[in-house]
Design a protein that fits this description.
The protein is α+β, with helices and mostly antiparallel strands and 106 residues long. 25% of the residues lie in helices and 42% in strands. It has 1 helix and 5 strands. It has a 5-stranded antiparallel sheet, with no helix packed on it. The protein is flat. The protein starts with a helix and ends with a strand.
């Protein structure tokens, strides 16, 4: 009997709280998504509540080195890179912040 108390209480709580959560979601403010920044270039978007435009890009490469005689015959080759480009207009002109983080060898 004690094993059934917890599941029944959880089901009752879901039945009582479920409609209240649905009403709260209907009242929630609608936020705009990302807005493109065509003046900064391809891939830049304006973040909500900000005047700067951001582009996040990256890549991952993977493969196998199948050359015999160089240590391990089938050594995995993995490399990755993440780049963040931020541009903002100021009174003195455009300010650009660029960060690129990478690892591995190509």
């Amino acid at each position: 009997m004690a094993r059934l108390v917890l599941p029944i209480a959880a089901a009752v709580a879901l039945v009582l709280v479920g409609p209240a959560l649905a009403v709260d979601l209907q009242k929630a403010p609608v936020t705009l998504g990302l807005v493109p920044c065509p003046s900064k270039g391809q891939g830049f978007v304006r973040m909500p509540g900000s005047d700067s435009c951001v582009r996040i890009s990256g890549r991952v490469t993977a493969g196998m080195d199948m050359r015999a005689g160089h240590g391990v015959a089938a050594a995995p080759v993995v490399a990755g890179r993440l780049a963040i480009d931020n541009r903002a207009d100021t009174d003195l002109g455009e300010v650009r912040t660029y960060v690129r983080i990478g690892n591995g060898h190509r």
